[in-house]
Amino acid sequence: MLSRFLSCGLTGLDGRLITVEADVKNGLPQFLIVGLPDISVRESKERIHSALRNSGFRYPANRVTVNLAPADMKKEGSSFDLPIALAILGASGQIETDSAAARSVVAAGELSLGGELKPVAGILPIALEAKKAGCRTLIVPAENAREAALAEGIDVYGLATLAEAADFLKNPKRFEPVRTGIGELAEAEGRPSGTVDFSEIRGQENAKRALEIAAAGGHNILMSGPPGTGKSMLAKALPSILPPLTPEEMLEITKIYSVAGRLGGRPLIAHRPFRSPHHTVSPNSIAGGGAVPKPGEVSLAHRGVLFLDELPEFSREATEVLRQPLEDAQITITRVMATVTYPASFMLAASMNPCPCGWNGDPQHECRCTRSQIQRYRSKISGPLTDRMDLLVTVPSMTYAELTAQKHGERSAAVARRVEAARRLQTERYRQIPGVYCNAGLRSSDVEKFCRLGIGEQQMMERMYEHYKLSGRGYHRILKLARTIADLAGETRISCAHLSEAVRYRTEESS
After folding, report:
1. Buried-state track 290-301, b at ≥16 Cβ within 10 A, e below 16
2. What's the pLDDT tens digit per position in 408-444?
């Protein structure tokens, strides 16, 4: 007897409906799964065998063949356990799976040996694909239900066991769908943990100003200074002044974390990510990898911040991976089994010491490094990567008076209001340009249109271009930086003052 049930597989961030077919026929007992299953799918037969018996069902003592169609797509993960089990129950005549209602049901979930449904990764993309395909009902493990319910327009049922799933197919009216909304989930998240408020940082007003500009325009920033001057603390304060996520951005980020299995029990990512990998991280961890590639750090930082502390300590291979996503706001990973593209629109924040000992240029300490050591240390960061940093900021040592001052600086909330106002201007300005949300995302072809200079500003920029021997990329990045400074000031025109500040940050003269 043949039975069919719907499930969903993943390719990158996109779901794809999978038809699970089970055929039970006379013959020697055997369980065969075809349709390009990976190891975790092939192992499901042991989980399903035990789950059926321990849930009070009869396991067919016949030849069982399961096909996952389309057969040319690699199937991976344990989410096929539930639909395979339901298809076998249908093929063995223990439940009805050929009714019109059952044919519109999509199921995903892992089975324990006892028949309990366990959560799986990638439920949100699965729910969105089921909704897009016109399916009316989605059955998922109870722990995945609130995440799946973010795909409004499809009834989501969070169930605890295989027996409940079989009972649902017999009498769906006994169960209530899970209802949730992005707004209430975001409100429940509250303030992100681990963030530093600007008022907690003593002194370093110039670095704070640079961070405000970076946040307002989505610009990359590199901070350089001696040990203990607050570079890491400044970077950790950056998320506190970034504008809040829109509902669309929350869904986009949640899809990435869902596919990567990084939600950690949360149904929604409501705050901008702040990723800070250790300097021993591999290139594959930065870009993403695996036989079927999973998102890496550049994608996990999408719409947020990727912070690289002690940048020269990272391997050259790991940092060079950043060049393409910094330009294209996405990364394409090619493996034997699949080629996937993940979004990677992030702000890069990095810190470094000026030399191996850390005291080069510090008036209070003597540097013990030779010129060749300093040159070798700085050469660990390639010129093309440095050219992609919009703000180059020196974070100097503080005086005793600055460190012990009783007056607290401006709170992050006040800075965040200015940043949000500047971002609103940019959103309105670029509403007709797909994929551009802030000044840093402007393409070269759009810079001249939106960063137009007057005659005086053009003359000034020509002098700066010749004096600092700027590259074409550096020239455009200065214009975009000046556009952000003007937006923070609420001015429609880029002035010489805005250009002067932008050039100062761009050419390592900021201290």
Report:
1. eebbbbbbbbbb
2. 778 999 999 999 999 999 999 999 998 898 999 998 8
